[in-house]
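Hi support team,

I submitted a single chain yesterday and got back a structure, but I'm not sure I'm reading the token output correctly. Could someone confirm the output below corresponds to the sequence I sent? I've pasted both exactly as they appear in my results page.

Thanks,
R.
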Amino acid sequence: MTRDVSEIRGYHAHVYFDAGTAETARRLRDEIERRFDIEMGRFHEKPVGPHPCFSYQVAFAPEMFGSLIPWLSLNREGLTVFVHADTGEELSDHTDHVIWLGRSEELKLSIFDR
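Hi R., thanks for writing in. Yes, this is the structure output for that exact sequence:
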């Protein structure tokens, strides 16, 4: 089945880090906020939701994809970034509609079991 891109309400990019890379993550966060008109989530220094690492979320509109994602791919300073579409279908948004910048991680998908 072919789906229409109009189903995408937005995107989330989750920047992953650990205690040793927290300063790098903060520096990248500051630069993202300076350069882009986005909605920034909390800086979580523990795993939250399906994410296996410390992370923060960058929420952005579909029209920002073409500028933000290429910029992140070049400027993520070795951090892993998990990007997914927001269609309202949480499980498939975190499994089927994803892009990894850097090494992929195994998500804790059991939180979507209901």
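A quick pointer for reading it: The chain has a mean pLDDT of 94. Let us know if anything else looks off.

Best,
Support desk
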